[in-house]
Peptide/nickel transport system substrate-binding protein
Amino acid sequence: MLLKTRKRLLASAITSMLIATGVSAEPNKGGDIIVTYQNDVATLDPAIGYDWQNWSMIKSLFDGLMDYDPGTTDLRTDLAESYLLSEDGKTYTFKLRKGVTFHNGREMTAEDVKYSLERTANPDTKSPGAGFFSPIVGYDAVAAGETTELAGVTVIDDYTVAIELTAPNATFLHVMGLNFASVVPKEAVEEYGEDFGKHPVGTGAYELADWTLGQKLTFEKNDDYFRDGVPYVDTITFEIGQEPLVALQRLERDEVDIAGDGIPPAKFLQFKNDPRFQDLMVTGNQLHTGYLTLNVTMPPLDDLKVRQAINMAINKDRIVRIINGRATPANQPLPPAMPGYDEDYEGFSFDPEAARSLLAEAGYPDGFETELFVMNTDPQPRIAQAMQQDLANIGITANIRSLAQANVIAAGGVKDQAPMIWSGGMAWIADFPDPSNFWGPILGCDGAVPGGWNWAWYCNEELDALGAKADAMADPDRQEERAELWGSVFTQAMDDAPWVPIFNEQRVTVHSKRMGGDDALYVDPVHVPVNYDYIWVK
């Protein structure tokens, strides 16, 4: 540790001299940064962690077989040096990089890959991501507690692992890029047991140097990281318990480098209009759409014309203004950052007069009364009120039920309880950049179950079948065709109008003037919210 510290001090001194003489190259190496968050970190165990705050932290500590090019949704190999897909599309054979070491100094091998996948799939681990591994042969037996071994995962030699699937699955490489597929050392998991999440050991660009619960975490650069040249920053200190407004005030005083919770709505216009921060604010798209669900099983919303009328009644531009323009109006379920998004699709136009005519055709010339469920945290109730006014304009009386997030989610999971739900603050953010993950849980038949997230209770078996056909296109040469097929699934679903897609909200953050790196790294769509491995200090 002393040697590492002295080496870093020397590197920092050299960097400082280069900057002073005006010959520094970009990006610079070295430096220490501070990132603030309001909430504490629950765990850094990649098999367990599943929230936006710890997601990118875990990605900086661990690696999987696959990952994404920084700031993009483009897949690339990670711990895998290469892979081959069998002719039947069911077996992936991964060649691992040699010489990759865990933070404890031991070399990572194919046995670690097998152990890590089986650990996440094991119900004793209680991983919220275990189901992602269901395509692997033998998963059902592991999930049932009949065995701890995934029959489809075979160690061929120290640097080769084969994974057999029950059927061709084009999403599988994305699954191997999820945190849940991160490779961990068995000995460290066994040493710390349930506390492994507080003592994480991975192969990542950073390693955990210190964790004072409820106060701060410190990540230290992994000098032995297998990717040459990264990370750039020496240490990252995550300060916990910082109110977002206080964090922004500290950032203004150059005491904080990244406000992890972003810019609260109340401060957005101030920062947007302040010349000092215009070059420091970063806006990026998310794998997310805000939508109003229309329960297709509850009268009168079971009538297509009624749902079409509601789609034409909502003024989306006005709703975008409520959140200070931090979104773009949506016309389809898929967000623009997702493969398969149809740029030519027009959707339903805002046309209250046509909406009133449709209601009359459906037998409701005087409208009707219904309920609109919404999370009770600002600005969601204000958005619901805007929808309420738009619906009143065509004769629909929508009584607002403003409840805690958990209660709204619970109501959506009961088939005949919530006619309409505004998804704000709860909308699905895709686990990986593939349209299949945006269909099954929230629009597919599998999600239209008690406790599910398909709050429209929409089930179109023909579109489910088209989605399954698309997912069977595992051939890399067919991915453009596959994306187009998936896109058609979503636009055809809009023919049934189970949703009113409202907007695609953008993530806005701000960093200090000394931070460098592409803007996309600060709103990374996969390393949410920040790709810490590639940012640097000027």
